[in-house]
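Technical note accompanying the year-one report. For the benefit of new consortium partners, we illustrate the data format agreed upon in the data management plan: each record pairs a sequence with a structure-token string. No post-processing was applied to the example shown here.
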Amino acid sequence: MRLLQECEHLKFPMICSVAFGCFPWEFYFPDNKSRRRAYEIYGRIMFAYYIVFIFTIFVQLVVMLKRPDFDIDAVCANMCVTLINTVTLFRQLVFHFNPKFKKIIQKVIDMESQVYRKGDEKICSIYTKYVKGINKSLKLYFCFIGSLLVIFCVRPLLADPVEQRVGDEVKLVRPLPQSSWFPIDTEEQYLYVYTWGCINCMISAFFVTCSDLIMFALLTQPMGHLNILHEILQNFDEHKRNFALRNQIVNDDIAAYWTLVDVIKHHNEIITYVNEINDCMSFVMLCDFLQSSLQVACILTQALENDIDVFLVLFMISFIGSMFLRLILYYHYGNELLTTSQNIALSAWQSNWYDQSPQVKIMMFTVIARAQKPLKFYLGQFGVMSLQAFISVLRASYSYMTLMYGLN
């Protein structure tokens, strides 16, 4: 009995998501309806618990803001968790309750099956090689977050208690893995609260990480198919002959015509896919763009506000490293789509279009003309995912950090 639908491009995110139901539930247990339904119930329970967890970190943020002795370090620690989990909640709502998103997932599966179904070994190897490269990046990111999770859970055991004013008294409060509210006295029941906090930390880390892995997979999907188009256009004669052999076409001009028709159809599918991603996820990507700069600023403010020790340095390197890796992956992939889609025109021009029939020449010029408008992933209505947007995040982070440090 299969647990997952067959799709190499989505396989790693789906495997990572299975423990807490982060991936759309309909794509698990494709051969068993009752198990799929049971898994959906489990996924809804985990999602409900995740919503409750986010509520507790917001409650804790409000409690800290109402204290007379405003602690910017504690607020920044809370906001690092609150911001990214809030955006992750928005993503999960889209993943599970937006029918358009499920159609996008199915389209990824269908487009990949079409590549392998054609049986062209060279094309399949290009696609497989690209998918393996992407999976290496996803596994690296997953390992980074895993190490960060361990540090989050171990750090409270090694850190010294913090002074906290409660009314007219000053109490020593032992730190917890994450800044969240608990309905019991955290000092009297510290071991219980610490264990509960570690579980919450693990669940939130999985939701955040798996949501990112799913988005990375969806954002990189067009590039795998664009690489196929580059290969076909640059070696047009070779793929024209392969197409003729597979479809038993004798006439060379007819083979060239139908090969290019196949390229144009594939290109249109990629364009439609990118438009569907923008329609479904552009607002969420805008929210992530806005929170990223503030989150980086909160992390750096924490580093400036604390006394430097070996464990703090290790913690900050892991935290900042994982955040920057996350941002680089998002905006690098967005920038790669822009350049790879625009270079389709160059690949078409480098083909031997001048040796083709007049009809094929006109079609080739049509491909070149369409590629002049590059494909883009949008951040709402305010920008494009690119390396320039990444630089904007860094600039905004510096401004926020200066403001918060000045307030303190």
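Partners are asked to follow this layout when depositing records. The beta strands are 162-166, 169-173.
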